[in-house]
Amino acid sequence: MSMQQIIEKVRTFDGVLVVEPAPGSGLPELAWGDAFFYCAPDGRMPANVQPYGTIVTKDYPDDTASKLGAGRWRVNVHVGRTTFVELTGEEPRRLSRSRDFAAVDVVMPHPVYGELGWVAVVNPGAATLELVVRLLTEAHAAARARFERRRT
């Protein structure tokens, strides 16, 4: 499954907003080519809410460990503590293992936001693709529940 196929799968989630910055979008040039996933049933990007998932296609100034670009991209998903521990074997706020954040098709803590409960996969493939889609589905459901609580 390609990056675009994952984006199209996420587009099928109820109440999702997929933001894909591009020239003319008014969003920062640094983010062009990336994708950000929100629960936004009204179709408007929520203020003061982080996306529950992203796909990035290049290194950012403070995030270079995955060596992205030139066909390398990374899916990032915010997961709950229990899922994080199941996937990584560590508590989000107590990360101590050395990792190769550039490894392909491996679930690991996000190189920058792992301590906040984010996991990442560079170029998901046979070993992780099904899991990545499940994690995005679960993250969307959690974001939807938070959205509904805020509305009441």
What are the salient characteristics of this protein?
26% helix
Structure description:
With 152 residues, the chain is an alpha+beta fold. Helices cover 26% and strands 16% of the residues. It is built from three helices and six strands. The chain has helices spanning 3-11, 81-88, 129-151, and strands spanning 16-19, 35-39, 53-56, 74-78, 108-109, 118-122. The protein has a six-stranded antiparallel sheet with strand order 1-2-3-4-6-5. The longest helix has 23 residues, at 129-151. The protein is globular, with a radius of gyration of 15 Å. The mean pLDDT is 96.
Summarize the structure.
The protein has 152 residues and is α+β, with helices and mostly antiparallel strands. Helices cover 26% and strands 16% of the residues.
Helix content: 25-40%
Instruction: Give the SSE order as H and E letters.
Output: HEEEEHEEH
Please provide the count of β strands.
6
Biggest beta-sheet profile? 6 strands, antiparallel
Distance between termini?
Answer: 38 Å
Shape: globular
Q: So how many helices?
A: 3
Report mean pLDDT, rounded to a whole number.
Answer: 96
Question: Strand share of the residues?
Answer: 15-25%
Structural class: alpha+beta
Write the layout of secondary structure elements.
Elements lengths: L2 H9 L4 E4 L15 E5 L13 E4 L17 E5 L2 H8 L19 E2 L8 E5 L6 H23 L1
Antiparallel strand pairs: 1-2, 2-3, 3-4, 4-6, 5-6
